[in-house]
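Aim 2, interim progress. The first record below pairs a target sequence with its structure tokens.
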Amino acid sequence: MTVLNTRRTTQAVAIAAMGLGLATVVPTVAGATYPGGNGDIAFVTTRGSNVNILQVNPNAPNIGTSAGDLAATTPLTAGATDAEPFYSPDGTQVVFSSNRNGRFGIFTVAQSDTNEATPAVEISQTTPESHDDYGPSFSPDGSVVVFNRDNLAITSVVASVGPSSACTLYTPAGGLALGGTNGDASRVVFDPVDATKLVYVSGTNQIHLLNGFVQPTAATPCPSEAGVTDVNLSTTATGSALGSAADENPDWAPDGSKIVFDSTRSGGHSLWYFTNPTSATPTVAALWPGQAGSGGTTDTQPVFSPDGLHIAYTQPVTQNGQQVIDYESNTFGAPLSSATDLTLGAGKSANSQPAWQPLQPGPSTPEAPSALLLPGVALLAGGGFLLVRSRRRTA
């Protein structure tokens, strides 16, 4: 497709320019909500004393080696248990769930922060908290955040207003997938090109498509649910029977044409995708058909790159027994062997829940971060390096 070819060319030019230290201005791709290059990948890790969110630059030198991955990684949050990161459409903010105030709430922090030099702000509740909120994501224009409240209701908040704008958007008959100690598998996600649609994971671990929402605003934070329709993609998409399997962790392609997810349809956890999910005839297929029927596969939590060409995902059993974040170094659907490990490091940390930062075109586009060894900035547990990552921006 022309759009994909344009994106591929754009990405190649951007990466080459970043390598030379040049500012990049990436042209807008028609029809894409997140035009521009692929930025950092955020992920959740247990490598420190808490469960926190780190960011890694997948285009850094020597990525896929222990030293290269460590040098390209910067700590973002500093709470007790911080999980489920999701970038704003312009890439400047990260929304996540955290239990730092006693129960799980939804917080935002600047993407350029390090170890919360400026503390994250809770937007879903005031303290003392009375709910558990999991799985946040932004609307296509970045004005609204939706999340799973108490595993019962899809709830929204106007990001600029905060807790006073929290409203129930939709209450599924069977509830939502359980957000556990780190909120895993419970994310609710807008269609990136149509804010009237979103997907969620039901209490029976099936992926549903909702259609007909009126987007909340500061003036009308609680629009009516009337007219919202609910379609179970897991059972209606043609291509493979669901049976007793579980589908989890959906993520949209930037142009809305696909939803990638993980599933136990093959006996283990492997990656699948819906094509044309909002059409009358969605289809489903395994991303790597060779895995189908193999009970030993354990790939989970896939997310698309902002240009739609790659995915990042969690591979639970790999180097030194640690759980790592991999990404496809070739196009979507390339062989499994093309994956690059982004989270190698000392120790046996569990790394999971990746999210991919979109880099917007224009004068505010950040360049690829560079790692600098500086004293007294941020100590990564187990690695022994003190580092901070600078973020140069074009004028």
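The second target in this work package is listed in the same format:
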Amino acid sequence: MLNPDQFMDIALLHKEGRSLREIAKLTGHSRNTIRRVIREKVPRAFRTPSRPSKLDPFKGYLQRRFREHGLSAVRLFAEVRAMGFAGSEIIVRRFIHTLREAWSAKLTVRFETPPGEQAQADWAEVGRFTLPGGQVIRLYAFVMVLSFSRALYVEFTRSMRMETLIRCHQNAFAYFGGWPRKILYDNMRQVVAGPDRINPRFRDFADHHGFAVRRHRPYRPRTKGKVERMVHYVKDNFLNARSFTGLDDLNAQARAWLVTTANVRIHSTTGERPWDLLANEELTPLNAITPYQVVHCVQRTVDAEALVQFERCRYSVPVSYVGQRVVLDARPGSVLIRSKDCILAEHPRAKTAGARVEKPEHVRERWQRSIAPPSAPPSQGCIVTFGDEVQRRPLSLYQEIVS
């Protein structure tokens, strides 16, 4: 293959009127090569010679899986390796790159944090899923990643309520063995109550543990890029093309995936396994404080049976509060019902749906009210009076008539 300089030399010699024999003698190329250069007039573009690849038998499978689910090269490499592919991961990466439209790269300054300094958390809706029984459920994923070690925790839920968010934090702290000095969030409404204002209930939880709540800069999602990438990683490497029988089964699979895949892989940035670096994280240990009690606070109206409803269960209060608004504080093991600062009743939390939890004194009071005699006679709709005195006759007069 001639390079551009050799091609131009032959073209110039031919333009000077030299013969093929003379050009061949001066350049050292064959006459056929010189004839081709004269005939083509422009250099040929270089083409990489096609060679057989170890990936050829698996390309159809890779194309189908990528087209149907958009799986990453890491996930697809693991699948074809189990099918017998003997090549390296870089071959799969190059092939997947040809299938994916190139994204323009953005200049980003990477910010690394010291051990125990920061974690990033996010809550993402991951879609609707159909269970084997046909029920369609909406799922959310809580994701937390430690910024130094890149250790990952994920938990799937069916709601995004405050008490669920706090429980997910507690489970993440238990999984990591502690919590960092700061946690970075986006503008999720469970954390952010307004401009420069943190939700008071979540603030109480953060103050109890002693970590600072930080928000990423508006319109700058890259300031929490670690957790953003982990959300995509969870969807692609774990959740995509995976089946489960229910929420408990999904979370069990997620825990196993964290142990066998996510936290033992070699991280592309740190070059080490997150699980190994987790030992160097300077986290606040779990035994540093007493466990935080999660309280679900709602308002309810007492019904005609002197009961209030919460999560498909009913709890009793004194009969005198029928029809009034009360506040219900639900803790993991108890339910406290109050009217302003007055505690009306405290019950153990029901364990089954549809249960009635009642205090004996409330039941007796309700029965006494139902069987007690009325305090006043019922009002009459009409009263008949007579102005004249009724005439009185002796019985002997009736006997004479009969005889």
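The longest strand covers residues 118-130. This observation will shape the mutagenesis plan for the next reporting period.
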